[in-house]
Amino acid sequence: MLGFQGINENNDITTLGRGGSDTTAVALAASLKAENCYIFSDVDGVYTADPNKIKEAKKLSNLSYDEMLQISSEGAKVLHNRCVEIGEKFNIPITTKSTFDEENGTLISNKIEENTVKSIIKKEVSRISIVGNGIIRNIKLIKEILDFIEQKNLELLNVDISESKISITFKNIIEDTNLQELHKRIF
Fold it and tell me: Which residues pair with residue 64 across a beta bridge?
């Protein structure tokens, strides 16, 4: 395998698709029994929110595999789900770093920090997701989010709370200013 291409069972060259290079790197690291896999790209890690929309967003030093899977499933394009799944299956820590600087990146591993929010993601479908292991037990945070929704008079369509994610779907498009204010309250 090289890059985002591989050979199938018929020895045909095939393209692995979106995220194929990351997936190839992690699969190769797993097959070589490497201690770590480094993914270099134009981003220097995973942030608490999209730094292009929230200037106060902070780079995260580490995430669990599950948190990264949740963040990826919500639309963050740092890593593809498949490479994170392989990393978790074979316990290969993945570090995302920038190709262009020496800054520390974000480590994705099996290390779990309970009751800490890791990221807020805004999708264009009027859904905001808040990710962090043990979030379901953080009653104070859930109350803070519901108070914010009430204060802003935002109309809810759905609230879904799991072990590591709160997803809130709204009736109308949520402005970035609301996202910024919620980010300030939580972090």
Answer: 109
Distance CA 38, CA 99 (A): 11
Q: Cα 160–129–85 angle (5° rounding)?
A: 95
- From the options 3.40.50.10400, 3.40.1160.10, 3.90.1150.10, 3.30.70.1150, give the CATH code of 5-109: 3.40.1160.10
pTM over 0.70: yes
Q: What is the pLDDT of residue 2?
A: 46
Q: Is the pLDDT of residue 18 over 60?
A: no
CB 94 within 8 A of CB 108: yes
Q: What is the mean pLDDT of residues 157-185?
A: 91
Distance CA 167, CA 160 (A): 5
